Amino acid sequence: MVVVGASMGGLRAAEQLRAAGWSGPVTVVGDEPHMPYNRPPLSKEVLASDVTHPAVAFRARASTADVAWRLGTPVASADLAARTVTLADDTQLPYTGLVVATGIRPRRLPCPGPVAGRHVVRTLDDAQNLRAALRPGSRVVVVGAGFIGCEVAATARGLGAEVAVVAPEAEPMTRPLGAELGAALRRRHEARGVVFHLGRTVGHFSGIDAVTGLVLDDGTALPADLVVEAVGSTPNTAWLDGNGLDLSDGVLCDALLRVEGRPDVVAVGDVARFPNARYDDVPRRVEHWSIPTDTAKRAARTLAAHLAGEAVDGEPFAPLPAFWSDQYAERLQSFGAPGLGVDDIRLLEGDFDADCVVGYHAEGRLVGVVALGGGAAATAARYRGALV
Question: Which of 73, 143, 230, 258 is the most exposed place for a label (fewest CB within 10 A)?
Answer without folding.
Answer: 73
